[in-house]
Design a protein that fits this description.
Layout (H helix, E strand, L loop, with lengths): L1 H9 L7 E5 L2 E5 L8 H4 L18 E2 L16 H7 L2 H4 L7 H9 L2 E3 L4 E6 L2 E6 H7 L16 H7 L3 H7 L13 E2 L5 H13 L9 E2 L1 H12 L5 H14 L4 E2 L2 H10 L18 H6 L14 H4 L3 H75 L5
Parallel strand pairs: 3-9
Antiparallel strand pairs: 1-2, 4-5, 5-6, 7-8
Length: 388
């Protein structure tokens, strides 16, 4: 029994090589490959050895959630993401491939100095710079490259001049003072609650309970409210690195990595796939117990809501006088136009009479001239000799 347990312990779940004995013979078996050197990280042609899935094999996939911005329009968060050019990323909606995602994370390495990552999926090496990654997944290539997940108050103080004011903008009374590093989600303003939900679904997903706001999440929300861009591609690749080193419960960015797999032509068909996750919409807001109509306006005092009869009578008299004045002015204007119309008609009648008289005089003159011309013609014929 003890030898059987020892043999089971020596068996590696993935690729590589190790040695164990069976019936007195040495047998070569897979074992994890050693990590590549820093020189290989900068070499696009260098092969990435297949690593051991280990705990990654048992992890779930966090696909991300498409944000339906029209359903959260009342909270005015879309302009914040538009300013950072993150909207396309938050609207990704496609299938995920769990097997490929797990291979990707099992072999993922990120060089912070060279800003290059490598991995290996389906026996093909993926080698990309941060800029190339951003181009593949349609992310901006600009912004401050700042990352300190999950972060401490020292990290916040190093990046923000006035942490107290920054947390105040989020709705908190200030940074945590009880020795902890997180603040409660319930202390956020309605807008920041929506922002935090979007962040924990797509940018800093970790699975499980998201009721606490980590310092790095508070920092991202502070930057969104201030309009100071961050380099999202750099943040995502660093978060992928922490997925391995900090043993997060799940593997993030399932739908995002589908774009990488399509670009590298790694999807061969027949792989296990997951349909897109539920979208972030009005139902999400309802589940968060936030009013889809937005924060309710403050209630008015009864004295302001119900006016006295005397006040109403005065307002009605004032409106009636105002309307009477307009009616009188309009009536006068109509009478003036009517008089002008009558004068115009009389003038037209006189013109018509004059034209008729001129026609008669012209006809008489034409008749008289015709008669005179005829008389002249007869006189000329009478005076001329017969031979002419």
């Amino acid at each position: 029994m003890q030898r059987a347990k020892q043999r089971k312990k020596n068996v590696n779940v993935d690729a590589g090589s190790s040695t164990r004995k069976r019936r007195g013979k040495a047998i070569r078996e897979p074992s994890p490959s050693p990590p590549a050197s820093d020189e290989d990280m900068g070499n696009e042609d260098a092969d990435v050895e297949v690593g051991s899935l280990g705990r990654i094999e048992r992890k779930g996939i966090l696909r991300g959630r498409k944000v339906i911005f029209k359903d959260v329009e009342v909270y005015n968060v879309k302009p914040l993401f538009l300013a950072f050019r993150w909207v396309n990323f938050l609207e990704i909606h496609c299938d995920s491939y769990p097997t490929l995602v797990k291979q990707f994370y099992a072999n993922y390495r990120f060089d912070r100095d060279l800003k290059v990552f490598q991995s290996r999926v389906n026996n093909k090496t993926i080698h990309m710079t941060v800029q190339k990654f951003c181009e593949v997944v349609s992310l901006p290539t600009t912004g401050d490259e700042i990352y300190f997940w999950p972060g401490t108050m020292d990290d916040i103080s190093a990046c923000i001049d006035d942490p107290v004011a920054a947390y105040g903008e989020l709705g908190c009374e200030g940074p945590p003072t009880d020795g902890s590093t997180n603040v409660s989600y319930n202390s956020l303003t309605p807008m920041c609650k929506v922002l935090h939900k979007i962040l924990t679904s797509n940018i800093t997903p970790r699975g499980g309970n998201a009721d606490m706001v980590r310092p790095f999440e508070a920092f991202i929300m502070h930057r969104l409210l201030r309009g100071t861009p961050l380099h999202l591609g750099y943040i995502l690749l660093r978060f992928m690195e922490d997925t391995r080193t900090k043993a997060l419960a799940s593997l993030p960015f399932g739908m995002l990595l589908t774009h990488v797999f399509n670009h590298e032509k790694l999807i061969q068909g027949g792989e296990e796939r997951l349909s897109p996750a539920t979208v972030f919409n009005a139902k999400t807001i309802k589940a968060m117990r936030l009013d889809i109509q937005g924060p309710a306006p403050p209630r008015r005092q009864p004295a302001q809501r119900f006016a006295s009869q005397e006040f109403v009578a005065q307002e009605l008299r004032a409106h009636r006088q105002h309307l009477d004045g307009h009616f009188t002015a309009v009536n006068q204007l109509l009478q003036s136009h009517h008089q002008e119309q009558l004068a115009t008609q009389q003038a037209l009648t006189g013109v018509r009479t004059e034209i008729s008289t001129l026609r008669q005089d012209l006809g008489t003159a034409v008749t008289s001239l015709t008669e005179q011309l005829s008389s002249l013609t007869n006189l000329v014929h009478h005076l001329l000799p017969p031979d002419h």
